[in-house]
## 1
Amino acid sequence: EEEVQCGEKSGEALEALLSDLAKVSNSRERASRLFQWLIHPIPSMSFFGDTWEKKPVLIKRQNPDYYKGLFSTAEFDRILRQDDVQYGVNLDVTSYTNGKRDTHNPPGRALPFTVWEFYESGCSLRMLNPQAFSSTVWSVLSILQEQFGSMAGANVYLTPPGTQGFAPHYDDIEAFVVQLEGKKHWRVYNPRSEDEVLPVVSSPNFSQSEIGKPILEVVLEAGDLLYFPRGFIHQGDCLPDAHSLHITVSSYQRNSWGNLLAKVVPAALEMAMEEDVDFRRGLPVDYLTYMGVQNSDEEDPRRAQFLSRIEELMKKLSTFAPVDAAVDQKARDYLHDCLPPMLTAEERASSVQGAPSRWEDGEAVDVGVTIRGHTRVRLIRSGIARLCSDGEAVWLYYTADNSRVYHKEEPKSIEIKAEQTDGMEFLIHAYPKFVTVGSLPCESAEDKVSLAELLFEKGLIHTAEPLQRS
Amino acid sequence: EEEVQCGEKSGEALEALLSDLAKVSNSRERASRLFQWLIHPIPSMSFFGDTWEKKPVLIKRQNPDYYKGLFSTAEFDRILRQDDVQYGVNLDVTSYTNGKRDTHNPPGRALPFTVWEFYESGCSLRMLNPQAFSSTVWSVLSILQEQFGSMAGANVYLTPPGTQGFAPHYDDIEAFVVQLEGKKHWRVYNPRSEDEVLPVVSSPNFSQSEIGKPILEVVLEAGDLLYFPRGFIHQGDCLPDAHSLHITVSSYQRNSWGNLLAKVVPAALEMAMEEDVDFRRGLPVDYLTYMGVQNSDEEDPRRAQFLSRIEELMKKLSTFAPVDAAVDQKARDYLHDCLPPMLTAEERASSVQGAPSRWEDGEAVDVGVTIRGHTRVRLIRSGIARLCSDGEAVWLYYTADNSRVYHKEEPKSIEIKAEQTDGMEFLIHAYPKFVTVGSLPCESAEDKVSLAELLFEKGLIHTAEPLQRS
Amino acid sequence: EEEVQCGEKSGEALEALLSDLAKVSNSRERASRLFQWLIHPIPSMSFFGDTWEKKPVLIKRQNPDYYKGLFSTAEFDRILRQDDVQYGVNLDVTSYTNGKRDTHNPPGRALPFTVWEFYESGCSLRMLNPQAFSSTVWSVLSILQEQFGSMAGANVYLTPPGTQGFAPHYDDIEAFVVQLEGKKHWRVYNPRSEDEVLPVVSSPNFSQSEIGKPILEVVLEAGDLLYFPRGFIHQGDCLPDAHSLHITVSSYQRNSWGNLLAKVVPAALEMAMEEDVDFRRGLPVDYLTYMGVQNSDEEDPRRAQFLSRIEELMKKLSTFAPVDAAVDQKARDYLHDCLPPMLTAEERASSVQGAPSRWEDGEAVDVGVTIRGHTRVRLIRSGIARLCSDGEAVWLYYTADNSRVYHKEEPKSIEIKAEQTDGMEFLIHAYPKFVTVGSLPCESAEDKVSLAELLFEKGLIHTAEPLQRS
Amino acid sequence: EEEVQCGEKSGEALEALLSDLAKVSNSRERASRLFQWLIHPIPSMSFFGDTWEKKPVLIKRQNPDYYKGLFSTAEFDRILRQDDVQYGVNLDVTSYTNGKRDTHNPPGRALPFTVWEFYESGCSLRMLNPQAFSSTVWSVLSILQEQFGSMAGANVYLTPPGTQGFAPHYDDIEAFVVQLEGKKHWRVYNPRSEDEVLPVVSSPNFSQSEIGKPILEVVLEAGDLLYFPRGFIHQGDCLPDAHSLHITVSSYQRNSWGNLLAKVVPAALEMAMEEDVDFRRGLPVDYLTYMGVQNSDEEDPRRAQFLSRIEELMKKLSTFAPVDAAVDQKARDYLHDCLPPMLTAEERASSVQGAPSRWEDGEAVDVGVTIRGHTRVRLIRSGIARLCSDGEAVWLYYTADNSRVYHKEEPKSIEIKAEQTDGMEFLIHAYPKFVTVGSLPCESAEDKVSLAELLFEKGLIHTAEPLQRS
């Protein structure tokens, strides 16, 4: 656990940053700069080296406006008024009083009339997917996900003065607590045991007696950041004199080596059985007489032999591991989890979304914009799409048609024809450079153009210059 | 079939009308005035007496602006640009060329870039639920549904000059073709036989040789209306010199006496078996030897006796018909089909949606607006809610939380406690009058207020005057 | 309620009867004679006229051997030993002590070791489908079902001296209690109200205080019969000095006019909507404003008009009733419920089951028995099969492949080709007469023979004389 | 491939053997003697060492009666007559003519009349589960399964002279072709490639051109045995002068090391993630940019590092392998696959199935046989039951209530209470010795007796001496 004190006004404020980022051409760089800003002044490299997944860190900024524009209670109120926020789906009403944690969601839509009544009575409000309602949150998370290579999510918490909304607990994600308004008193505790370090699932609610002494106790003020890895127990409560609004940005849920191995290992076994007769040989005819729990205390030399054979085969298994194919399975899940990109004005203008085709004065005009051999194109974002093979065909999975609501859309993909696969791969690796359609390594000019047209129509590429009418 | 010629500028244009309607306090009157405007200058009473479900009628207005503001191709273009319109879900691309009807929907989102390319190549565009994208269409349909007592839907059709998008066919709904832009050549044909009069399901596509001669042939121009009942075959095509945009407003799908009987009859039989031992008596032990298709040509006096017994019981069945309960079943389906109301500024201001509770200057203000005994309230719309009994409890079904997308939300209802049922019924029948909460026929003052609070929070009632803070 | 006293040795004992019945050629006559024997000395006609579905009747025979051979505790013991009887599936262990009814089924197979232990401890044993284990019960029920035109079922009850196994209750079937061994004290009570006369479902267990005074109290001895209709409450207990074994033969479950109407009425409505435009006309546009439970107390002349329109249409409905088609639906259910026939030696010898084809001395012999034009055939039983149309094709439903376990097999049917339908119908109506294959009204000789071969292979017809080798 | 020539009358015939086996007390010894007899004169040990899963072997016995009594065409005919054999379920009718393989199953029951007609027309008959119809086959297979530790199955094949019923193919099981009647010409071929050695699934039908030259060609005569491992292609056809009847005994379907690993490996991963934080650590944030199929050709040092980390973790995985628990999962599947034991007269007499409790002279007699502390008991068969833990409770899985029809019954188990687990384990390991109930290591005498009673009632143990009445 570590504390960093910043001088006043150190670092760029969000609004300025976002406008700067729009000028950064490479989406990976954009992601890394946004993340760097989030944890400023800690350098990213040292953060990932020393802190990430290891220990909490606190950044005190003395700059209440640092995160300004990301989210506010005023926007919360506006969303309640304008959008269809549903209790229990998008908003939770909670309380933690005298050691008792309660949820108070009524059915139906959450309108300001009832929401603010709950707040006034001392309940905390948790908005579950602010990215669906706030463009800024959407924009920030959709950029950050490219930094993490794992879905970035967020919850917003609004807590009345002098109250606490949640019991102490730990989560299954890396958490960045961004204080937006007011202040909050936080206590962070070590994982209780080795088994709860970087845990796979979140904890239940703990009582105060189960969690020991905090390793970090602090009052977070607007502009401050508190990071802690999954497994670190935490609780926050409001001081009597101020409400608190914070947003917790999260990532790395089910994104461990073990989660990848769960894809690798069954595939490895399947391949081993196909390719290596040792895996297909019959078990000893008498193995049931000395193996199994009922025989586990028996002294039988055949047991050792059997166990050593299993060990030998399991070790051999690693030689069959189709790691890249398993990574692709994981990547497909990730692309499905992703937020769609929020395009900048420039990106929009040079992509299908900004194509000039329109209805004007009783007719369709500027129709049929043409992609030609000399048109220069590239992926609209580095992480927008990924080429995966299922053994028979090659598919391009992409995030462009995802919804801002998690998994509301099915995973999206298009089949890439054999004669266009190399072209597609070339385009992916060319990023962030623009390349001419004519330079795509497809045999025929027609294949080059039709691939580019397909990708353009799906919103996966944009052009270096505005497109011409045909 | 009938044709009505209007003088130029006869009737109020839509925009003015809608602003007038907002001042009409009674939603049923609002509905009837909007419908009257739609079919102006035919009086509603004579329309429902002579035309509805009987024959087509054509109204030529000489006023291209009559329906202006309802929908336009410019709005179509805006929707494609701003909303998530999906091919096959919200938009169909069709053609009818040389007697062949085709659909050309690609997968994915319909952006202007591809949509206008289809249009330029001669395809028709059908937008399937414009009410989800256009507030005006939503407003108009949500008012009209109260006139019909049956869901009002709409499709928009945009057709390039010199083309036809659909084969001749008939539908299963009453259709009001509202010409918005350009012009279209229409032909309407009689139902082909008695069996196809007011049909239960739509027809397949017909060939030109199957449909006989048109009984009505006309060029519809902006501002004109063409109505025809379900079962009347129709086809429309564009003249070479003009595109066409029309919206077809529809209603009365599965809303016949037979559709109601499908709810009445099984309930009647269930009741008859409970209450009348004649329905519980055993069949004759030998009935299988003389009844059934294999015996239908037999001359057996027992057959006549058996058939007459069946007839007698079926006639008796009508004495058990729980008609009101069956109507409630149908009403529940209707309330689920309904669009939610689109509130006027005044309605909003006096209902939960416009309640002053809000976040301001770091705190929740104007929270806890109070409904008291002297507060005057009424349903926000006549058709917003309906009291139904399922035999055990009493439920209030309502439309306020429906989605603009058909059946996207489950049917919504709240249980009304026994001690509040009379109060609820009183409130329903009081409409359009405002009544004081204190006048509700509930025993305790608490029951009166808690009923009114519940209805207010759900957005089902509004108040005569703005609410005060508590 | 009625009591009939028989002289000793009146009526034929079962064994003799069954051997006589095997000589009766017409299965319908067989059924009626077996039923006559069951209720001897009451004439069938007067039974069905005065007693059936009306009141209990008791027959005291003074002849303990009258039903001998139908079932015995010795056979019960043999079945436990030889067959796979499962607790809870085929056998229930019950008790009724101090007003409390309990079931004691352990999981798994019911072997004599545990079954007799339960019996000794005072539990009653109910065997649920003795027809699956006892050929005689199977034979008797499969004949009786043809008399009832409705499935005939049975349970066997063995009760230790001085105990009662079941609480007072009524059933949903006509019950014939056949006392086989020992004696039992029975009390029968009137239905408690008009609503419980010929009830649709069985009652829960009653307490003694709920059922009033018995209308019949008697000690049933071996050879006696007690009949009571569904709805009559009953209870039986053993005297201290004797155990009791009885079998209850049941029929007419869900076989009322109402059960048939449940098939007729929806089909009638469907037909009415197709054929009569009155059923397809729209409901009044304002009907929801005066109909429905919330308006049921309103004085509105439109209500009376609406109700009278419904009544009119419901009465008209009877003119569309496709009664024969509905009877066929019911007949199909019945054929699925039926036991398969238990063939007599003669039936077996002249049907596919007794065909001489066999393996002998290393080769298949007497293969290819031929049906020719002069072969005389008929259905093997009147009720073995039934011709039903589903509107498109004609199907022959049949019971021959049913299982002795209720609904273990799917309903069985074969499609009858258009050119063989008349032949099939002719064959059905010819029963009990044998007819030559050549006389079947099919156009070609080939169709006649192929129909006969198909029916012969399925075991649905038998021949007048043994078949010859081809 | 190997051929063994036996002198005439070498080895004991089946009937004598089975009667001898009934005297063998230890079921494992019974199994090994029966298997030894099957492959006589090859010693079991050398068979499993040199031949099993390695190569075909042929045993020519010069003794047509060696397998007599196992099955015959006469029994086939009897089964068709007496049992409910269904085409497509229990019997397949096949042909292989001019390189074309056909199946001719009609729907419905297979009666001799139609079956022998198919046979006469040159079709082969395959009975799919003779163990359900033949007690001898049941008995033999239920003993052999204990030898294999894997389900033993069988099919019977009857082929007319001069015909072939099946195309060349290989199976996924070890096959013992036992010639019962007549003779058959067999050709056996090597697996076509390393990948088809000991294959996981059966092959499709091959054409003659795909399979190369036979490594074994022979005419099998009654009494002969042909064994070949899975993967060896084979075809058999009848000589013009003789029909053929053989039974193929099979085992070791899905019983390989790989099949066990499919249970071990996911469990190992689950355990590793619980116990070792290395498996829970996050993946590198940038891994998607260099791993996956689209990056598989990239030269990036991070790839090697990533792959080596995966390899390291996979190797470490073997240290977490819960092998005994996985074997128990496999054992549970095996116990579910097993045939129930077919008891000998002695086994029956000393078990629940032969308990003297019965109905005699109007009452239950010899009820309540008592198990006491000095009663000597043991498992009725070594393989009848197995103790498995699911982590929370301990369950005894058993085969006694399985059906002779594969998987017709659900897996059967009973929970063993904590205080009886040691007793249960003691009893399992004591086999084949009888032990007194009093010697079971349970704390209370009551626990000992209640455990023994439970096992006795389920048919899992028998007693050394006949039981006494209580």
Note: Chains D and B do not touch (no CB pair under 8 Å).
## 2
Amino acid sequence: MENDNKTKNETTFRNGEVPRDAYKAWLRYAPLNPDQAEEYAPWCGTVVAAFSGHAPLLATACEELRDGIGSMLGRRPQESRSSDSERFLLVGTLDSAELKGLMDEADMEAVGDEGYVLRTVEQPERRFIAIAGKTDKGALYGAFHFLRLLQTGQRIRDLRVVENPAGKLRMIDHWDNMDGSIERGYAGRSVFFHHGAFLGNWNRIRDYARMMAAVGLNAISINNVNVNETATRLIAPELLPSVAKVADVFREYGVRLFLSINFASPIELGGLTTADPLDPQVREWWAERATDVYRHIPDFGGFLVKADSEFRPGPFTYGRDHADGANMLAEALQPYDGVVIWRCFVYDCLQDWRDRSTDRARAAYDHFRPLDGKFRENVILQIKNGPVDFQVREPVSPLFGGMPLTNQVLELQITQEYTGQQRHLCYLVPQWKEAIDFDTYALGEGSTVAGVATGALTDRPLGGFAGIANIGDEPSWTGHILAQANYYGFGRLAWSPTLTSEQITDEWVRITFGNDPAVVETISRMLLDSWHIYENYTSPLGIGWMVNPSHHYGPNVDGYEYSKWGTYHFADNQGIGVNRTVSTGTGYAGQYHDVPAARYESVESCPDELLLFFHHVPYTHVLKSGKTVIQHIYDSHFEGFEQAEGLAEAWRGLEGKVDGDRYASVLSRLQQQSKHAAEWRDVINTYFYRKSGISDAHNRTIY
Amino acid sequence: MENDNKTKNETTFRNGEVPRDAYKAWLRYAPLNPDQAEEYAPWCGTVVAAFSGHAPLLATACEELRDGIGSMLGRRPQESRSSDSERFLLVGTLDSAELKGLMDEADMEAVGDEGYVLRTVEQPERRFIAIAGKTDKGALYGAFHFLRLLQTGQRIRDLRVVENPAGKLRMIDHWDNMDGSIERGYAGRSVFFHHGAFLGNWNRIRDYARMMAAVGLNAISINNVNVNETATRLIAPELLPSVAKVADVFREYGVRLFLSINFASPIELGGLTTADPLDPQVREWWAERATDVYRHIPDFGGFLVKADSEFRPGPFTYGRDHADGANMLAEALQPYDGVVIWRCFVYDCLQDWRDRSTDRARAAYDHFRPLDGKFRENVILQIKNGPVDFQVREPVSPLFGGMPLTNQVLELQITQEYTGQQRHLCYLVPQWKEAIDFDTYALGEGSTVAGVATGALTDRPLGGFAGIANIGDEPSWTGHILAQANYYGFGRLAWSPTLTSEQITDEWVRITFGNDPAVVETISRMLLDSWHIYENYTSPLGIGWMVNPSHHYGPNVDGYEYSKWGTYHFADNQGIGVNRTVSTGTGYAGQYHDVPAARYESVESCPDELLLFFHHVPYTHVLKSGKTVIQHIYDSHFEGFEQAEGLAEAWRGLEGKVDGDRYASVLSRLQQQSKHAAEWRDVINTYFYRKSGISDAHNRTIY
């Protein structure tokens, strides 16, 4: 029996010191302790593949099982087509000869195209664990599920799991530019591009595809939604062969490739004089491009589009609307089962700060709501979780539940643009859970965002989740090693939005750092607390912003206050906040359905954490917490800093329990965070003390 | 007689549309009106050169006279070595046979090395105008003076002028990088460099040298004081031949070339392990470099040095002081008559905004005052006019008058970094005049900055004026055509600091736009008012800053308030200002001599315009103007905007009186200025209204 411990994790790094564990992320497959190994070993000596017809991903599944198990148990399972062992793993498709009859008809129906079952079968004649998908792709997901069970020390003797993904589209958006830079990237340069061309580090891309598949992700867009000159050419004949090579790698792991496109391509690439979506020549041009793309990439996912947004071209130029633009592209992709993902991040970014009647928060709903029902079936609108832009705290976008006749995808930002840029620990799964669980009341109580985004609520054919990647070419992929949890968590939520933050966290920590209870408890606590900690020492009570313009790092209370970006707090010497009520404000609160609309409209029922997003109140306003707004600001900032120090403190308790490289790397980030949290605390407290003239009730130092 | 109207103004521009008049700047030599022409013509038919020995600049002088007169009078003077005309111009050196005896001994003594006389001589046997220098360089300056008289319509029948420059060093500092960018440049790219090499547009450099000589400037440093990797090599063998070519061009016009050097050159260039100024190897290395530089450029001016300032290397690294650093370089240059110009812009740029005891304004004096008397005779300290950094309003640096045993140069910023970046009209001559005329009381009343900077007050061997260039490769040289006046005015003040703003302005306007009284009156008024207008709508009462970080354009009241740069206003809901008194503040006011120290120390005697620089006062504090501080802020900002609109209005009155190209170009800038002045007005007023809660007494719109 082999025991070569071969893994696919080989790659080339720019310097010699590779923190291998950091690179392996959730594919570490660290050796299990002897008790666990002894329990699992009897089942894991042989992997038997069972399929009928073409099932290329089954080979991937078997390979992953053999590699992962080999690494964890110290023995690489044999591969076999027959099942003569005493106990074995049977990996395959439900329609295969070996697996037919495993489940009855009713059970079979519960397994969707990407779904799978894990089942321990103890029959007189044979004992095996079935890892079976309706398709080979389902089996691959099942294999990763099984590996996860081993990594986290679960029982496998009586498995009876049926899993289907909640979101059809579980997608990662890269904002990578072809020069190798990454917009809002904090983990190095692009893993795809450099110097205007493809980087060609196929090993690394394959590892990345494995990481995606392991958390159930099935789609990726590799280039920035702000499509510049070079990237416009990705759909041109000269670059498509390279794009196809990338697609080939992702395909091995069940991930479909998308491209962000430039709406003005017919002009910039095609030499036409217009990009008018209703122009027959334009339509023809796109149809031809689509045909060519599919000639190279038969399972190409489709186009991701940022149009008429932040100076990007779009249908408005031609007096057309977003539906005209999206449908034109959708028509071109339709013959090939491609989809158009059209972003709703549309607002006036040349606003006048003096004009209090224009409200950026309203913009997406005002633009798109009237178009409900006008989009083709293969168009999906991609909507950020909140109405503004990935702030540490925002209400949910009212477009969720506001367009029942339109496919939607929930866009989340894994990369920590406004949440510490991977220099601060800010685990976003709890934030995302709040958005996902939010009840829109679109069809009465229980109309959660999860239901809307997956399409389940209104029976839409398409839907799902899109996350902006926090991935770069640093050895750890994410810069801050603990930021891997955000990527992992995104994938897990996209598959199963009903998982709790605690479940996902526990799982990730065990897989990444092992099953030592002290380690699991400490890191889980750190992760789960970190979003609130970050919120405590940054922008208070839902008001957002207060960051340095452009790069968005570090405190600057008035940074966007007199800008054209529509992001204001209106703090004066009496109070702070934006009046977005229907009665006396911008009316934004009225974009929600009845129950949330009423909740936000009234200062009494509006939750503390969103108070300043919806209301302008005096500093002396008493919150539900019993504190005044100003005292809340002071308290949360003093507390937030102490909590940030506590994170570093807690981590120090793990010295010796986490390998030296990862320990040192994380500690250094946490120390930076703690120092920078003091800067946030002091700038915010001083700003509001100087402005309000109200002293801290506890006489702490405010400069 | 020739009439070829040939000029040296030919150059190549990147686009076809050359606003020729803008390019010619103060070398336009526009045709004079017939009356004037008739008056001057009889004298100007022949130019006779008179010299003994080597006098290469006399040829330049004659050429300039012939070109300029040819252009103005429509007839190019003949050149002649003999004086057989009825009337003629006699250009030469006072020791020439033709000019000997022109003046008596006493008069002769009054003419310094760069000085000259202009004298109308009506003798029975001959009538001529003598343009005579002690040296050929003096004669060149005299020639430009004479041309200026014609351009501005002065009488020449009874000339009796003796002129000497007040400042020995009349220098321009370019902050040009070798990649072609210009630090704080607002008029295009460098005229010297591009892509890490010399641009080689010799015609343009020659025209620039002519412009310099025409206003009496005699020195130039061509590379940024922040000397990066490439520019470090300017003193290396491979680049010196190119540097020498530039020096050759400037030499034709009496301008000596300097280079900014990198203090760490011995390491970065020489491969030594140290740049310690007391290390013998380092001293030897610099001596060798100096020898090599002078081998290529025999009249090389010397080194300009920014050391231990804003992250630049310097002697501090080795536990040495500025005197050690400067003297080491001075020693290397001494054999060749070279000088070291050592900048005093030294402060802690990693300050903590929470620390109110550290005061950046104090830094230069604290660093350099103790070193008085320790610098070699060929070291000059270059000191910015104010203690902070070229703000619209600052007190004078107390180093002027604080170091009687040290050569000093007054550094002024011609490029409008903080004063509108050549998008706003801000004529700085009145600001500079205030600095130059400031009485330091170093040796009792009458100890002006002019006296200190020129060295006259304490009989220093060296001194003068340095201006940071506002020059780039735009057709107009300065972007905003009216910004040419700042360059011109700097040159004129460096020559003659006793000139009034009005004199300089009148002269420049006539030369640049002609002698139409309406034009002269309007543009002069615009220029003379513009600094106060800019001050009105920007940072009030001497507090400074309130600009966007990094690029320094546009309003941002808290832009630097929580930064590490040491530039704060400390505005809270009660008041604003920095307490720099000796009694209760940072003690900065005590760095001045008795009279100004007492004036600034007391809130009663401190002038309004500097009040917030020296004192923290409540918004309700009543100024000498009778207004409260807050009402002053509102009033000056409303007024400043209206005045800015008035500038555009005034300019519109000149339509048809100024050529179309220049009219349109200036109008467009003034319109931008007016629009942007409204932004300043509203941001500043809103900021202080929100902060103070005090309403405008006149109920004007504050957002």
Note: Chain B is about 35% helix and 10% strand.
